[in-house]
């Protein structure tokens, strides 16, 4: 399965409206929500919620999609925690590939993510 770790509201949009996936529990205030679906031969899983934090769930795939919010300083700090976690998993050979879906800053102040992109030898792909 290709896990999607949703840590921004845009992750819910991706899962529910683009991929048309369902979440359990249906309660939008739940601390942990998850779902799974299959497109062709690809299985997707999705987790989101306030209780989804780095290191507190099992990593069962070599690939992951991180959905992050980079619109403002507080969100960037939170996003970099997830990027550092993914980097640690890559260095431990628990992950092979990390894709990032980023909600960026409207003024294009998104330079903070550059050190994490593969062109600089790190986790993502530009």
3D architecture notes:
Helix content is 23%, strand content 26%. By secondary structure, it is an alpha/beta fold.
Ends apart, CA distance between termini: 23 Å
Cross-sheet strand order for the largest sheet: 2-3-1-4-5
Order of helices and strands: EHEEEHE
Shape: globular
Strand content: 25-35%
Question: Averaged pLDDT, please?
Answer: 89
Radius of gyration: 14 Å
Q: Approximately how much helix is present in the residues? A: 10-25%
Helix count, per DSSP? 2
What structural class do helix, strand and pairing data support?
Answer: alpha/beta
* Weakly predicted, low-confidence segments: none
Total strands: the figure is: 5
Biggest sheet descriptor: 5 strands, mixed
Quickly list its features.
2 helices, 5 strands, five-stranded mixed sheet, 126 residues
Short characterization:
By secondary structure, the chain is of the alpha/beta class.
SSE blueprint and pairings:
Blueprint (H helix, E strand, L loop, with lengths): L1 E5 L2 H10 L14 E7 L2 E7 L14 E7 L3 H19 L5 E7 L23
Parallel strand pairs: 1-3, 1-4, 4-5
Antiparallel strand pairs: 2-3
